[in-house]
Every structure is written in structure tokens, then in C-alpha cells.
Amino acid sequence: RSWYYQTCTEFGYYQTNDYKESIFYDNINLDYFVGICKSAFFDEMLNKTLSLEEAHEIVQQRIDYTNNFYGARNIPRSHIYYTNGKVDPWSEL
């Protein structure tokens, strides 16, 4: 639940699929993940039922905020150690 909360309120990182021949094409899309955010967190946190479009807006606003706060691709370059990431399971993405 905590990882889903972070993806909904900070990162995104949704692994969606736009390859039409995939068995997951129609079911596992961005609406699927944002729907989880909506029902698991946003409706309760805001004490109202949101539309899926409103939930999309909240997710995008939170991702934009996180990217802005941490610098996204323009990270300040001091006291940072970069590894090669070969043992990181996300490295091939």
C-alpha cells in the first residue's frame, strides 16, 4: 500500500502498455492505475467521490510537484554518487 501511495502522490512509474497485441492492452492502462489511486486514497483523503479525470489531474499535479522539487532531469550536482545500476532490476527499462 505504501508503494501505491508513493506512485499516486509523488512518482507515477505506472507500467502501462500501448502494444495492441498484448493481453494486457485493454485492461492494464493508465486509467487502471489512476483508478486505484482514486479509490484507495483520493476519495477518502478529500472526503468526496472524484471523477477519473479529477484523479488524473491530481496524480499529474503531484508528479509535476515532485519533479520540480527534486529537479527532475536538472538535479543539482553536488554530493551525489552515481553507480552503474547493473544490479538494479529497473535498469533495463
TrEMBL record:
GO MF entries: carboxypeptidase activity; dipeptidyl-peptidase activity; serine-type exopeptidase activity
Assigned protein family: Belongs to the peptidase S28 family.
Transmembrane spans: none
The keyword Glycoprotein appears for this protein: yes
InterPro entries hit by this protein: AB_hydrolase_fold, Peptidase_S28, Ser_carbopepase_S28_SKS
Name the record gives this protein: Serine carboxypeptidase
Origin superkingdom: Eukaryota
Keyword Heme: no
Biological process according to GO: proteolysis
UniProt keyword list: Carboxypeptidase, Glycoprotein, Hydrolase, Protease, Signal
Taxonomic lineage of the native organism: Eukaryota, Metamonada, Diplomonadida, Hexamitidae, Hexamitinae
